[in-house]
Amino acid sequence: MRRAGVESVTADAPAGWPTYDLETLLLRKPEWIVAARHNASSLSGLAGRPGWRDLEAIKLGRLGTVSPAIERPSPRVVDAMEELRKLVNGGPSN
Q: Which end of the chain has less neighbouring CB within 10 Å, N or C?
């Protein structure tokens, strides 16, 4: 994520698939909430969930999706990183 010019709120987490409770996310104040496209349906309901609606990212509508390639080390991850960079920097995405 750093190579895409994005700092993750999970940057200090151990390797693997870290989990965070809502209180931790509220303290870390993510500017964006991003998921791989196949998880897009998970994003759509966040604004209606207690606590989640208090996140600045939700209030500002900063929810987005990128290619699932972002989840796997492969040559296509570079394209997914570019999508992520464009998304959070306000540029057009592919």
A: C
Q: What are phi and psi of 66, to 5 degrees?
A: -135, 175
Domains of the chain: 2-11+29-88 (3.40.50.1980)
Q: What is the mean pLDDT, run by run of 10 residues, along the chain of 94 residues?
A: 78 78 88 89 86 90 89 85 88 50
Cα separation, 6 vs 41, in Å, equals 23
Query: According to the model, what pLDDT value does residue 94 have?
Result: 44
Count the neighbouring beta carbons within 10 Å of the beta carbon of residue 53: 11
The whole-number pLDDT of residue 58 equals 92
